[in-house]
Amino acid sequence: MTKRILFILTGGTISAHESDQGLVAGEMNTELDDIIAAAEEAPEYEVHNLMSIDSTNMQPENWVAIAKLIQARYDDFDGFIVIHGTDTMSYGAAALSYLVQNSPKPIVFTGAQVPLAKIGNDGVKNILDAVSYATSDNAYAVSIVFHGEVLLGTRARKVRSRSYQAFQTIDFANRAVVRGHQVLQILNQPTDMGELTFYDQLDTRVGVLRLTPGLPADIIQSYLKFADVLIIQGFGIGGIPQLAELHYADQIKQAVAQGKYIILTTQVPMEGSDYEVYAVGQSFLGDNHLIETANITIEALVMKAMWALANGKDFDSFKTMIQTPIDYDYLV
Questions:
Q1: 87 in a labelled binding site
Q2: Which end of the chain has fewer CB atoms surrounding its CB within 10 Å, N or C?
Q3: Does the model's pTM come out above 0.70?
Q4: Which residues have C-beta within 8 Å of that of residue 193, sequence separation ≥ 6?
């Protein structure tokens, strides 16, 4: 049976054209029709021009708008393909992973490093690969399809700024790969995936502090003027300077006393954190208002914190939401 796909256009490099100020996101009019006509098994499809912006300008409310559109049209289609810029695609895919949970239907993000208007672009192949995956029988959940790979929306990161192989699944397996028109599934849909659930809120009062040598902890209070959740990226497997002159212990205790939520993670991309290992990490544990996050990407953690802050009732529910695995985002 022919699958029905909704294309959601948001702009990005794939749609861009030259201007006096450089590349500017535009609209894809007949280009998409021509590309899909070349698909081995062209689906029935509809196109929704939701927005046309550079992905650097994408904000949480834009991803909420995408989720709301998918919810409104969910019963009408077998899958959804979001054409999105690459620079914040990892954040967008993570956001949709929390806004639309346990989806038995695929929600696929794709785009390009080179505009369709330029010779040698990668957008045609990425769209065709996205169609191949979105119309395959085993497709599910939120994924990024790029350069022949199907990456988990909760574990993908942009790792190259120019090359066609722009994304990598961090510290985990891909969901599938696409070779020609054939989809080779790696991760099958879980039999106990849970009930499809939609959310429509993200709270942006989340900040990230990447520790650097010599950075005084006074900066924490500056962050907390604008954030209710502060994610601290410590060193290595989990370390925060104990030097008295930097005042990290005092500043973190003060933040907790103010009712702020502090999340401890690592700036190392692989293998996660464990603040129990070294004294410089363990000394900061023990406070019930600190959350350690094991192995989760910073992109997923930021968006999960926005989702949990918007939808949790209190600190305990917030902590539970952060530490409950969703589509392999949280690995212990």
A1: yes
A2: N
A3: yes
A4: 102, 104, 140
48/229 Cα distance (integer angstroms): 34
For residue 294, give the 3-state DSSP assignment.
coil
Q: Was 250 annotated as part of a binding site?
A: no
Residues with Cβ within 8 Å of 254's Cβ and at least 6 positions away in sequence, in order, are 220, 221
pLDDT band at 22 (very low <50, low <70, confident <90, very high): low
197 in catalytic set: no
Residue 138 corresponds to which tokens in the numbers above?
């085993």
86 appears as a binding residue in the annotation? yes
For the range 217-220, what are the long-range contacts, defined as Cβ-Cβ under 8 Å and sequence gap of 24 or more? Answer: 217/246, 217/247, 217/248, 217/250, 217/251, 217/252, 218/247, 218/251, 220/248, 220/251, 220/252, 220/254, 220/255
Enumerate domains of the chain plus CATH numbers.
4-198 (3.40.50.1170), 206-323 (3.40.50.40)
- Among candidate residues 293, 197, 207, 284, the one with its CA nearest the CA of residue 249: 284
Residue 92, Cβ neighbours under 10 Å: how many?
29
Return the biggest CA–CA distance within the chain: 68
List the catalytic residue out of 10, 30, 86, 266.
86
Q: Report helix, strand or coil for 235.
A: strand
- Classify strands 197-198 and 206-210 as parallel, antiparallel or unpaired: unpaired
pLDDT, tens digit, for every residue of 84-116? 999 999 999 999 999 999 999 999 999 998 888
13 counts as catalytic: yes
Q: Which amino acid is at 80?
A: F
Give the β-pairing of 261-266 and 229-234: parallel
Provide φ and ψ at 79, rounded to 5°. Answer: -170, 165
Percent of the chain past pLDDT 70, that is, above it, reads 93
